[in-house]
Amino acid sequence: MEADRTSMDAPACPGCARRDRRIAELESQVAQLQDRIAKLEEQLAAATRGAKRQAAPFSKGPPKINPKTPGRKSGKDCGPKAFRPIPPVIDETYQAPLPKRCPCGGVILLAHLFGQQRHLFTYLRIPGIDATNYRAEQALKGPIVNRKVWGGNRTEDGAAAQGIISGVLGALAKKALRAIDWISGLLRAPADTPLLVPIPGG
Fold this sequence. Notes:
The protein has nine helices and no strands. It has helices at residues 2-9, 14-52, 107-115, 117-120, 122-125, 134-139, 141-150, 156-174, 179-188.
C-alpha cells in the first residue's frame, strides 16, 4: 500500500504532461469545428430553402430589428412629414407664363397624325375592328399580374409551359367551355374531346 501511494503522489512525467495538454487542445479545436459545421449547415439549409421560393420579395428570413421606413429621411434638412417647410421670408418671385399652345403651332402633332392616319383610323375602314386595344390589354393581363406578383418564370421551360396553359385557358374562355371539364375529358378520352383549333387539312 505504501508503494502504491508513493506512485500516485509522484508527479507525471514531462512527456505525459505534454500529451495531456495536446489532447486538451485537440478536443477544444474539435468542439470549435463542430460548432462551425453546425452553423454552416444551418446557412446551407436556409440558402436551399430560399432558392426554391418563387421570388425574393417573399423571403421568410428573420425580421430586421430596425427596418428602414420608406419615404424621405427625417431631419432638420428634410423637414417634417416628408415636405420642406415654407421659408419665413420670400426674397424674390418670378412669373412663369405658360404658352397657350405648342411653340410649333401644332405642326408636329398634325404631321404625326397625318403620317399615322392609316393605322389610327383602321377601325373606320374595316368593319369589325375595335377602336381601342382593350382586348389586347385584357389578353396580357394574366402574364402581367404573374410578373408583378411573383416575378414571372425562372426558366425557359416554365415560361413555355405557362404560355401553353394560358393559351388553352384563353381559348376555352372564348368558346365558353369549362376548363375543368375539357381538361378532364382530354385526359380520360382524348379522341372524344373536341379540338380548340381546327387542324389545317384535317
